[in-house]
């Protein structure tokens, strides 16, 4: 294959560069940012993502900057009662052959960049819609992709929710690491440890101030401690007619942004990258049905998370209580 140009040095673009390089195809990554992304918040990497990254030889480097949560616990907004618990840790690793990790985004991007040959990533190199390098152009330039904009005329649309994010100090006696999700009417909170900090994400339709004041005191206090949190309005896009046109192909959020409620956006970008480097011609057919299922589950997950108290919410809680690791097989295996 000819040399590949990749627009966007995020999780998807850098993983694609590594996957192409593993197959002997040289790449150049054009990243708009003039410098590596600073700090940044946490990210969950489920086994379907770590399997790809470990396969690219990144296991030891990732392990050094990650936490292995023992479980994901779903809790009720009002009293913190545990509605359900999915074991992660050793159980997930044994079942899926790859671990569930949490880490800082900047560390993930650092591990990916460090594994690339020097000079692969060109920082301060924004790509616009007229960019047509020789060979293949991969649009991995995220939600507001310029590469996609040159192919299709649609725009991202706001889904009505904002994610408020913060990194908080770890409690003095944090106990085993756990991903905790508190569910309530029209809003939810996610907390998980990354090395040296607790990553908090509070999702609500309106301002953060006052949104969680009536919640169980420990989660209310976490949200209070997060203020002033960094706001991230949540957008998505309709599925494009195709992910590929001639020598231009899209991956990750540029192709299929999704609400973050399943913690799968970056994981799917990573899966895309591996599939693209393996078989350009079969890429979209191989990936699209799975991605559409994940997008649909993310949308449905948001609706389920935010049910008001009542019969539908109680049926949801029964499903959560009955759910176990095997129910995640379609996603993580
Ligand atoms: C609150 C929140 C929590 C999330 N949590 C998780 C999680 O736990 N697990 C998970 O898997 N996913 C999660 N996601 C989703 C995940 O962040 C995205 O799906 C993922 O970052 C997409 O990766 P990407 O490489 O496609 O795009 P991006 O990460 O957006 O990267 C695009 C890159 O392209 C660059 N760029 C943009 N325009 C240009 C241009 N014109 N020229 C050159 N470069 C350009 C950008 O600077 C950026 O570096 C979360 C999302 C949100 C909002």
From TrEMBL:
The keyword Endoplasmic reticulum does not apply. InterPro entries: FAD-bd, FAD-dep_Monooxygenase_BioMet, FAD/NAD-bd_sf. Keywords: FAD, Flavoprotein, Monooxygenase, Oxidoreductase. Its cofactor is FAD. Gene3D superfamilies: FAD/NAD(P)-binding domain. SUPFAM superfamilies: FAD-linked reductases, C-terminal domain, FAD/NAD(P)-binding domain. Pfam families: FAD_binding_3. The keyword Transport does not apply. It comes from the Bacteria. Residues 242-280 form the FAD-binding domain. This is FAD-binding domain-containing protein. It comes from Dactylosporangium darangshiense.
